[in-house]
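Translate sequence into structure tokens.
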Amino acid sequence: MNQNNLPKPIITFESIIADKGEEWRATLDYARTTIPQKFMSDKNLIRLTKGAATIPQTELMVKLLFQDSKERPVGVPGIELFFRVVDHSNFNLGSWLTAITYFYEWLAKENRTTTLSKMLGYLQCCEDSPENKDIEHVFLDLVADMIREHGFVG
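Result follows.
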């Protein structure tokens, strides 16, 4: 049997903790007790955490997804919207988490808030901006420049 036919290992919360460290246990427990399965499956939580996510980024996403589940109790869950956007983006998951963190912190400094869907829409607009067409940018730099030059209405 060649390597391509080997079954993929099953990733669990325990395997994430074993891989990333015991300090992830509290974050995963927090996520699982804060957001019902209906709004974030174990599969999506694992996908979020197994990549480039840090503990603070994961905790921020849990906070944003919890708020989203209260604002939009029906329809497509926020985590699925998030992954759709990321999957169709030229930027990776880690870049998106960094951009969301920056944007959230900027909003907090301005004593403002917004919904997750508006945040994702703004970040998509940053990616689609003419400034990102001729020269490939670091997503965080692009978002910071767009906020500085154009602000945010939302």
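Note: The CA atoms of residues 66 and 77 lie 10 Å apart.
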